[in-house]
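Continuing from the previous page of notes. For each protein in this section, the sequence appears first, followed by its structure tokens. Read the first protein now.
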Amino acid sequence: MSEMSREILSVGDLNRAIAASLEDRFDTVWVSGEISNFKAYDSGHWYFSLKDEEGQIRCVMFRGRNGQVGFIPQSGDLVEVSANLGMYVPRGDIQLTIQTLRRAGMGGLYEAFLKLKAKLAKEGLFDEERKREIPTHPRSIGIITSPQAAALKDVLSTLARRAPHIPIVIYPTLVQGPDAPAGIISALKAAEKENAVDVILLVRGGGSIEDLWAFNDEQLAYAIANSSIPVVSGVGHETDFTIADFVADLRAPTPTGAAELAAPRKDQLLQELDAIQQALLQRINQRVEREAQTLDQLALRLGHALPNPDRMREQITSWRLRLNQAWSVRMENWKRNQSHYQSQLEMLNPQRTLERGYAVILSKENEKLHAVRKPIELNTEQGYQVQLAEGQAEVIFAEVTSKRP
């Protein structure tokens, strides 16, 4: 290939290609290091670097995620993070978008978790062949959780919205602390003994690895595996995994998700529309987060008293306006497309053809009506049904003369 025939990329195109390659190549990664240059902006987003003796990497943690951390990190803190690897295109920097952040030093619990997970996997407790199907339309649903848990309120609200006709039985128990595993096991046995529910939701809200440790109990894992009633686990947030999740017949990302899986809507179309809505909201949130990071960078430049700050503020306002206008145009296009499709369907309606003066001749054979398409099918010996725009008529032909078109 000659030099003249090669594609020449802009810097932005090259950075976007690198960002896409990184996102496709790497799944969520866990990284440990020391926090450096920590900054919390008024927007609620956190910016910092993770470093060790061999290198460092820039990080960003958006407001929706850092609200679940439980403490404000400081420069010099040793932490462990789960993150997506990508690139901030305008600056060309490789960065980690942090999903979860915790203090370092939880490795011992995690090692115990991995050992128990390996043991139970070897025994076959996680095998898909062992797991039972969740009933599509359960006659009743059991919930095992703490009566004081916020997760219970979310689950009850979701079930009331999606399936208010299904009875609910609550089996109260502790879901945190040393006594929690025994309490959960007792609740499972009570549900089996009563035999009043078709599916059990084992739910708890999010928390640290210590908060969720009751769901990593070995005896509880055996109790879930041996339960005669299918169990749906909804423990913690989407990124939290416990032994109970692996043993359960179905794992939901959240307590609310468990309720949705146990009582799905009957209308398949509404489910598809909901999936489209969730995908759209995710894209919008991603776009908003990217734009929020850009705004934070512009705010930083304004704070450093760059020349003509008033003009820069005007540009920010203009970009916000353009973003809103672009979104409005996109929505109008979607509305026009919907109207176009509706008009196309209306044009294909057979009733419209009849209203233009056409008619359909129906012949009855073997107690079934079918449309007459050839003159040879007409005769004077039987009756026919003529379908018109405003009704139908029974006719008998006195004479039939066939003509070729």
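Done with the first. The second protein uses the same format. Note its length before scrolling.
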Amino acid sequence: MTQQILSIEELRLLAKKRVPRMFYDYADSGSWTESTYRANSEDFARIKLRQRVAVNIENRSLHSCMNGQAVAMPVAIAPAGLTGMQYADGEILVAQAAEEFGIPFTLSTMSICSIEDVAAHTGAPFWFQLYVMKDRGFIESLIDRAKAANCSALVLTLDLQVLGQRHKDLKNGLSAPPKLTLKNMINLASKPRWCLGMLSTKRHHFGNIIGHVRNVDDISSLMQWTAQQFDPTLSWKDISWVKKRWGGKLVLKGIQDIEDARHAVQSGADALIVSNHGGRQLDGAPSSITALPAIASAVGKQIEVHMDGGIRSGQDVLKALALGAKGVYIGRPILYGLGALGKTGVTRCLEIIRKELDLSMAFCGRTDIETVDQSILWPGTF
């Protein structure tokens, strides 16, 4: 069946059928009017590729390096909260698929499976995404747990000092596990596959938090705690503290402005991610692909520049690389694959991205992903 699925859109439609509404909407929505969420993908379509012919395109290679790590293609899996609510034990399955494929997996602070869960079920080091919260003792313990799990990079998210207003999440009453209201029970009754999967696992809460924070042992106290914990006072001084505590590879996520990119360089971080949080924070901000070229031009020789937001195909990956990204992150396509078919769907998603990236690079007359630059793009479209 999976070989008949040829696009990310097909995985999305299947996931929509199989995943409960509140969790599907969590993955597939933005804040406020969702203008930035839509622009993230729509702006890729405006960029056109230059087709070249009569060029030897044998022996092509997508192998590259991200953040000092060899990768099968310059793509990492983005951190996504509640991945384990798209499909039972979701973070473990995604991490395993990424390891088998040869690309990095990034675990979210707000994951269902804990750092220790993922480490126990994988062999390769993974990356851990961190939010800075008011409880600094908890943050220190998270960093130490990531070290103990042999995580090879810390991805510090900077653009969630306050939570963006996400209308669908508010209307759905998003919670993990879902509250058993009449509306939710009716919806869950139409998702028997999902329900059976969840009955087979004990992982239904935020695994990195429950059991690790004082006085947080049930869902009501947890939701209250998380709503109060995102820290609006976060500053560049905190990044120095995190960097010192961590001591390893540090990636800063959420950069949209050249001035902030220069601050990232000065902080001593190893890489930055041009990102608007998937359009889930500041609605009306530019798309990531629009913001990327100026940032790459300004600081790309001083720090490794990555990007995320709106990637739905291998062609999108190619365009981002041409505009200066050293690597990209994919989030929603992975969640679609997971929700549709579990680990098999994640693998299929990666196969689709790789195939489209390889063929598109070939049509542009290139055989090595490391040689891709703006010259593969049609002038005037970027």
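What the second structure shows: The longest strand covers residues 250-255. Residues 343-363 form the longest helix (21 residues). We return to this in next week's lecture.
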